[in-house]
Design a protein that fits this description.
about 80 residues; alpha/beta; 4 strands
Length: about 80
């Protein structure tokens, strides 16, 4: 059985915590991060995962099994979630 391919949207405190949890799971593979920051400035603890702009998330459609939304605030999440 293939690993579950995971993306993380947001790389603040919650995103870093989810990164640790995904990397500890033997049946999951962290494949991508999505950020509103400049992707070239983002340093993660998973160098094998792609770092993409949040606006480019659609380019990973069909390549990920799940994206975990880890960013934003109470006013951001209703906008980010549907997108």
């Amino acid at each position: 059985m293939e690993n579950i391919k995971v993306g993380i949207a947001g790389y603040g405190n919650v995103g870093r915590g989810v990164e640790k949890a995904v990397n500890a799971a033997p049946d999951m593979e962290l494949s991508a991060f999505f950020t509103r920051r400049d992707p070239s400035a983002l340093q993660t603890n998973t160098p094998s995962a792609k770092i993409l702009r949040a606006d480019d998330a659609a380019s990973m459609q069909g390549k990920l099994d799940v994206v975990i939304l880890c960013g934003g605030s109470a006013t951001d999440l209703p906008v980010q979630g549907p997108a």
